[in-house]
Specification:
Length: 253
């Protein structure tokens, strides 16, 4: 069953009355501003739009089922990637990760995808394209990755944690291949009762991951010899990887 009218009203009323000192280094406070049904190709969801008092980043939660006051709710945290999510760029695997998470949650009784409007893990679109450009012009991947690597994961998770609190979720099971994320969310006050690995279906675009070749800076290289920079804070596990490959991929994050 989806979010009830009573719970929608309750969430909106409580957010309207909510005030706090904000979370993370920038003291961000988010409030639920609007909720609507969202049927999608991945199933029936509700979409929750958050107002942000600091940087105009309108984060979004995609809800499956009535998660209010629920425990052990499967949760995926996804960082916005305009080029991958929307345009279908093959420079990253963001769209594969997003679709796989939505497909998984869409089949569950309850679940949440937090869509964080922090392009390129917080560095912004311009800097991300700049990093792509650096790679193209022969700069070392390390340099390009440094440009992509400037981010503040702590701040990211503090806002994600605030969103889960606004949604009145009691405890979560994190959908991730990155065990470190559990500690981060826990530090921000979220009760994490478990981890659900995300295994992506192989396709002709991500098949190179199955070979997991590393270059000297430890990045995955595709068949064309281009290094893929990790844009989601999550190592991609593709169906068909063996134990050794999985260990390598997870260890490289
Ligand atoms: Zn707040
Ligand atoms: Zn991406």
């Amino acid at each position: 069953m989806g979010l009830t009218h009573m719970h929608i009203k309750e969430l909106l009323d409580e957010s309207r009355a909510h005030a706090c000192d904000g979370v993370g280094p920038d003291h961000v406070c988010v409030k639920i501003a609007a909720i609507a049904e969202m049927p999608s190709r991945f199933g029936q969801f509700h979409i929750v739009a958050f107002y942000n008092n600091k940087d105009d980043k309108e984060h979004v939660a995609i809800l499956r089922g009535d998660v209010t006051n629920a425990g052990d709710v499967p949760v995926r945290v996804h960082s916005e990637c305009l080029t991958g999510d929307v345009i279908g760029s093959l420079r990253c695997d963001c769209r594969d990760q997003l679709e796989s998470a939505l497909r998984m949650i869409g089949k569950m009784e309850k679940g949440i995808l937090l869509y964080m409007r922090q392009e390129g893990r917080g560095i912004g679109l311009i800097n991300k394209i700049r990093a792509y450009g650096l790679q193209e012009h022969g700069y070392d991947t390390v340099e390009a990755n440094l440009a992509l690597g400037f981010r503040d994961d702590e701040r990211d998770y503090s806002v994600a944690a605030h969103m889960l609190e606004s949604l009145k979720v009691k405890s979560i099971q994190l959908i991730t291949n990155n065990p470190r994320k559990i500690a981060d969310l826990t530090r921000h006050g979220i009760s994490v009762t478990g981890r659900i690995p995300q295994i992506i279906r192989p396709n002709k675009y991500n098949r190179f991951y199955l070979e997991t070749k590393a270059n000297k800076s430890g990045h995955l290289i595709d068949f064309a010899g281009k290094a893929h920079l990790p844009e989601q804070a999550d190592p991609p596990i593709i169906q068909g990887m063996d134990e050794k490959q999985m260990k390598w991929v997870i260890g490289s994050f």
